Amino acid sequence: MAECEKPESKAVYWSCDPDAERLQADTPDEAIEEFLDCVDQEDWPENLMAVGYAPMSVSHHEPNPVRVLDDVLERLDEDYADPDGDPTEPTEIMIAAAKAFCAEVRAHYVPFACQSTGEKVEVNVQAWVREHRPDWLQQKTNPDEWERVDT
Predict the structure, then answer these.
(1) Domain limits of the chain?
(2) C-alpha span between 134 and 150 (Å, rounded)
């Protein structure tokens, strides 16, 4: 089994739940703990895999400068153009400005959607718990087994 230490990772987030809608764990260990903390001990799997995720890259085709410019010109034409005339044709200056605008938007846009980086860390659950959360093994789940502690 692989150790949970991650060498130069591309992953920003980690999860053991392939259907997770929100990724919050920054390390494989956090993802494993987060997953196991939500599952009854008797339902723990023998092994568990944490998968690395990173925000998706915005395609260099989006936003499309031609579509952005067409949309702006159409909106302007609705209010300001001759209703019986042809639609406004973009000029070279408009096209260059639309390309620069879209490049800036793309450069500063932070995607929420993530994709797998292909990085995976698999652990034996019992071994991981003994190393990282031994307090979970000491907890008693049956009230009849609880010891009275005088304070």
Answers:
(1) 13-57+111-143, 65-108
(2) 23
